[in-house]
């Protein structure tokens, strides 16, 4: 009897190591043809890494990839395309100044006489793909004039144009309206009937159960569940995603909260092409409170912090510090009023790698060391202040004059925190404060956060790590699709928080 969904691609013992982290830890994965292979896991679980390996964007550090039982080497994206593998990334890979047809066939244009692009044939083929996707988008339309949902349809058409036998869809419905989602599901059913193997990644659990034939769950680079979808429900997926236990970052003393120190009201950040990246969001933080803002990829958490720090001039909303309106419209003005941000990418946005530890710590507050009408700096006072923060934050250094690049990731993160504290903030915004640091360094950073809160500082921290938000937060807010979808006290049930993060507002964009 013939296997209805034969294994078309398999990975055995897949290991992927990046500097400082092991993204895949001996993964065994089977991709079945003529079926939807659902892949799910928290942010950082290894989903994207696994898909990049299959699509030729990354190479395995160790392990074997086979197709139809034969070992293969996928060293580049062109190798993957030659093997019939296509991928649609969540972040669209398109050119807004080119037409729809040009985007679909870029680098694979139909030619006349071997050298001249056949624009009519290209346009006709693009029009046929649009009909297949049940859209009447004109192939000669400049892509930049389309809504984001329509651009995602073009990205899917681009993958279909390659006649892929294996198609990877990473969050394909994130920007689609309800009607566009139904069209996509019909296209997927059609591809399944043609024997195409589809890998489908999404945080929307109801969607996965509806469309999936097989499910694989990743957690911390290992597979914690792999089976046929029959009998799978949301509680099973959540248990496989987060496990029964959690990482412990125990609190040593009861929190004490003061008055409201920060409030945001009705914050909106319009999205290019329609809709909102941050959608009418309001929240408040009290003195001494650690407020955790949890959400999955694309929820709009980082963008909200950027709005607070005046990094998006076209954003709207109202802000208050200790009850007083925050009217300053630039980053420096907001820092002066008591806001400080620990950015997600500390190396790119938080530190100057070629400068010393001392210079990085004092960089945001040089005016306090300026003398003679800002013509020179009191270097002795600057050094003393930097050393005070080194001791206060227990930053492990040999000398404050060593380059900051010589420190470990955890100590670099403490330098960024020190730089923010040097501005005497009333509210500290922290974007993924533990990203890229080991478990020991995380515990150190979290102890620092607790100590600062105990001293009366209000902390709003953004994370995609469920264990961290549950263990650290005095109160938890959950975002999905730019909106707040849940509020929980400390000690909330993990399944409830995950359910709020996977809730979504069905978008019904006008044409």
Please give a structural write-up:
It is a single chain. This protein has 17 helices and 24 strands. The chain has 511 residues and is of the alpha/beta class. It folds into three domains: 7-242, P-loop containing nucleotide triphosphate hydrolases (Rossmann fold), CATH 3.40.50; 258-338 and 425-511, Rossmann fold; 356-422, no CATH class. The strands form six sheets. It has a six-stranded mixed β-sheet, with helices on both faces. Strands 18-21-22-15-23-24 form a six-stranded mixed β-sheet, sandwiched between helices. A four-stranded antiparallel β-sheet has the order 2-1-4-5, with helices on one face. Strand 1 and strand 2 (21-32) form a beta hairpin. The radius of gyration is 25 Å and the shape is globular. The protein starts with 6 loop residues before the first strand and ends in a 10-residue tail after the last helix. Mean pLDDT is 85; it is low at 504-511.
> Into which percentage range does the β-strand content fall?
25-35%
> Which of globular, elongated, flat, extended, rod-shaped describes the shape?
globular
Task: Give the low-confidence spans.
Answer: 504-511
Q: How many domains make up the 3D coordinates?
A: 3
- Main beta sheet: 6 strands, mixed
Mean pLDDT: 85
